[in-house]
Amino acid sequence: MAGRVGSRDAVKAMVLAAGLGTRLRPLTLDRPKPLVEVRGRPLIAYNLLLLRRYGVTEVIINLHHHGAALRAALGDGAAFGLRIVYSPEDPLLDTGGAIKNAVALLEGDDFLVLNGDTIIDLPLDTLLAAHRAHGATATLVLRRDPEQERYGLAEIDADQRIRRFLGRPAEKSTALTAYMFAGVHILSPRVFDYMPAARAFSITRETYPAMLAAAEPLYGFPFAGFWRVIDTATDLERANAALERHPPLHFL
Fold this sequence. Notes:
Strand content: 15-25%
Number of domains: 1
CATH class: Alpha Beta
Order of helices and strands: EEEHEHEHHEEHEHEEEHEEH
Structural class: alpha/beta
Helix content: 25-40%
């Protein structure tokens, strides 16, 4: 049985759900991408059910594209056994800006961030335990993938510490293994020290390179289980087919 990362540990989560979903048009012309269905469920439901499985009770969701429709569909979160709080954006703030915009809702303890277009069969309790055992400022879920350069490369050493991110140089003597970032991370409030206020910015392109330059402890969490991201119609077809073949995800 899965352990819990919420309640006792006061871990909150943020699901990034504000994007325009342009590569998934026409499905996203009249709805937000998180409400596109995968195997009969809205895409965002997979993240919410995963969080509920591990005892997370408070979830922040950022809103922009068809934000009113997403709010209407999810309400206050009671249907999922959660408390959902919304963080509207106008204009869009990108990943880092979205997290910084929600700082008042996230301060206080470690928190999870999940991309709203990702389905992952992830043991959140093991992720949190690794993050805290390392004393990490951020722990990124990583995976090996033939298309890993499409999603952003992270390179880790034998202790799983991230030494290079998006090509930032490491010491030449360091033996590194390359992975892709899988769109799930757990962060300590210290990340806010590396985030500018009141503008759009990417956490992967700005915040993490700055943290590496400052020798902040960033760690990877290699994961080889079920993972799919839904960016395009082809991704959606592949996700539907993969879920049909795959044993039920452990949190469903």
